[in-house]
Amino acid sequence: MKRHLIEDLKFRQKINSESNESFNQMLESLEKKVKTLTEECSNKKVLIDSLKQRLSVAVKEKSQYEQMYQKTKEELEKKDFKLSLLVSRVNETESVIAEIETAASKQLQGLALQSEQVLEGAQKKLLLSNEKVEEFTIFVKALVKELQNDVRVIRQKIRELKKMQKNREASKASTRKAQSLAASILNISRSDLAELLDTEDEVEMKKTKIDAENDQEWLLYIQKLLEGQLPFASFLLEAILEKINENKKLLEGYFTIMKDIR
């Protein structure tokens, strides 16, 4: 009986031992699971804290974005209002420009008509001015020709008076005696003496030729002034006065010779 009890106790002890071992294993396994779960919980807590921080940041950013959105919306509304005002002003400006263009077109048409009339008047004045210039040129050329002719005539008359004076002096007896005396002093014949005296005529002819060349140059100078660029009035006046003064001096010389002959 005791033996049976002892065996039964041993058996139970063995079962208990096995149960304890199994329980210990299970406990160890549970501890590991608890540890793992604890770590997981800790990690999840850290993750949750991180998510909370990120959520807080996201909430702040959302609030900022909402403020920015509201501000942008208000600015857009203001810009839309300004744009509508600008469009209205542009329309008004276009209307005013259209009116101005219409008025300007009418004014331009009027000005074109006036300009055409003014141009016709200017053309008539220009034509009249050209005619006056042409008449003035004709007058100047006629005046120059007349002055030149007067100078030429006076020169011719002076030469004739000098020749007449010379002939009168040569016809006098005293002159003939003086010529004979001069020929004897020079030991030449009277014909040679006459040739010497004729050299005065050659000098006079050379002077006449030079005067003619100067007259031609003067005429060419006047022609150049009339065909040249403005202004030329002072030069033209100076040239004409020069010829008038020359004519005046020739007249004075002419009257002096006339007095001597008389």
From TrEMBL:
Transmembrane segments: none
Swiss-Prot/TrEMBL keywords: Coiled coil
Coiled-coil region(s): 20-75, 144-216
GO biological process, one term: centriole-centriole cohesion
InterPro entries in alphabetical order: CNTLN
GO cellular component, one term: centriole
This protein's name: Centlein
Record organism: Chinchilla lanigera
